[in-house]
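Researcher: Here's a chain I'd like modeled. Treat it as a single chain, no partners, no ligands.
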Amino acid sequence: MELRIEQLQAWARELGFGSVGVADVDLADAEEGLQAWLQAGFHGEMDYMARHGMKRARPAELVPGTVSAIMVTIDYAPEEPGWIDRAWAALSDPERAYVSRYALGRDYHKVVRARLQRLATRIETEIGAFGYRVFCDSAPVMEAELARRAGLGWRGKHTLLIEPGRGSAFFIGTLYTDLRLAAGGSPQADHCGRCVRCIDACPTGAIVAPYRLDARRCISYLTIELKGAIPEPLRPAIGNRIYGCDDCQLACPWNRFARPPATREFAARAGLDEATLVELFGWNAERFDAELAGSPIRRIGHERWLRNVAVALGNSAGGPAVTAALRARTEDPSPLVREHVEWALRRLELRDRHAGARAERNPVHNAR
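Model: Modeled as a single isolated chain. Structure tokens:
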């Protein structure tokens, strides 16, 4: 029995996917760009990117027999209207902790893969056994590029996929298969035009050119992928972002059309959308594990969690509660945590000293 794209789309919608398409897996013309990105060192400490080499652009080397890729998206934008304005408000509040909107709820890797497995089972019920493997940001797969080729959107200047009518606030899932399927659509035209809002919005200048990202400067990389110390010159720009960064997406005008998810699994947990930095810095390892069970955040571990929150506290407005929280961890067993706590305390002390010096130089102004 032949599998038609209309059938796939209907089944995908039933499973909560926002869109679905089929891509050919010949990515030979993408290898040069991937190789240049790796040679520039833009992958940082993500050694697996280089270790997998061109396998990322050669699906049949990862899963022998692969000839087609079924690509899906699933929305995750918060349900409440005005979520972008609220996100900017959280970023501007130095007492609040900011967690990337995609990570507020259940681990998307598990959600998307489970639903893709259900889609594969549905296909198998209709046409019989076939070869396949499902992925969601979990293997060397060029997901955004394959989704583009499946007609699900275009690559924005921030390198993320943008789909008309839903922006870029969605996850991408991949189902490699040995079924030779007809492509369901052609790549969409780039509609970014002369807009550079995502580039201008990046706090650390990680988007070094349109469509070119240096992960070593990206706050998502620094707070999630980087295992060691965050480079000091980049710490102030991190602000209160303790896990990931959304600025390029919040600035993108296409995300006015972002859609809420078809599942409650991405709803905020553990009060992460309202939590303060001091509150989260007080979590011990046991509470960290308990509160973040089933969350993508848990994989960075308690040590890097404290590292990230310490940096954010150093960028905060300070005050007795912040200082007390930091000093309580000056003897932390982790050298990594201690180093970032000491940096935060020095930064706050230096800022207070400068503020005092300015007050002495302008006594009349400060008396008003």
